[in-house]
Write a structure and sequence with these properties.
mainly alpha, Four Helix Bundle (Hemerythrin (Met), subunit A), 9 helices
């Protein structure tokens, strides 16, 4: 009871009841802060686990697609608010369905739900943001956009959603962004960062537009 003893020995005229209540209040606050910190850490671990599992799945299936490209593809499907049964149809075509196992389907279902939840809650954080350098971010952004444009093209081709001029422009722009790795002249300067920030804003604005338009 050091806290109480300290107050007893001081010149402060504070009652023992108040001191005890303060002690319990501090304990309560500390307990809740600890819970919130633990929840935040668990949330981060879950996010990392999803990314790691996606990479593991791609390796397991010998997929030619990168993790960024695949997330872009899945994000494209999810942002179109497709009926549940259509996801499995397109996943079986995106991957070699003969290699897909139950645990793969289970992960992909959870992964798609996670992406949908983030888009709904406006907390979507794309994988290309996690890269360290501006050059890597631009390359990842290009791969992601390539996957996204592929998904939207398939969705429109199969008439899962109604086509319009804005969607056609998004596909065209995303296909151009997808060429960054091959055609962009990286110079490791502030110009790379400015280009990344501008393209990133356009990409996320477009994703939100598609998601809102197809609800």
């Amino acid at each position: 009871m050091l806290l109480i003893d300290d107050f007893r020995s001081s010149s402060c005229s504070v009652s023992l009841d108040i001191i005890v209540n303060n002690k319990y209040l501090l304990s309560y606050i500390y307990y809740n802060i600890s819970i919130n910190i633990n929840l935040l850490e668990r949330h981060k671990e879950t996010m990392n686990l999803s990314s790691n599992d996606l990479i593991a799945l791609l390796e397991d299936l010998d997929s030619p697609f990168t993790a960024h490209e695949s997330e872009g593809y899945f994000s494209g499907l999810v942002s179109c608010n497709l009926e549940k049964g259509l996801y499995s149809i397109e996943l079986n075509k995106y991957f070699d369905y003969q290699k897909l196992k139950l645990d793969h389907y289970e992960f992909l279902e959870k992964y798609i739900i996670e992406l949908s939840t983030k888009l709904n809650e406006k907390s979507f954080s794309p994988s290309f943001d996690t890269e360290v350098t501006d050059k890597k971010k631009l390359i990842a952004l290009g791969q992601w956009s390539k996957g996204y444009s592929l998904a939207i093209s398939i969705v429109l081709d199969k008439k899962y959603i109604k086509n319009n001029l804005e969607l056609q422009e998004i596909i065209h722009d995303f296909e151009e962004i997808g060429k960054i790795e091959d055609e962009y002249n990286f110079n490791s300067s502030d110009e790379d960062k400015r280009h990344y920030d501008n393209i990133r804003d356009y990409v996320l604005t477009s994703v939100n537009y598609v998601f809102a338009k197809t609800k």
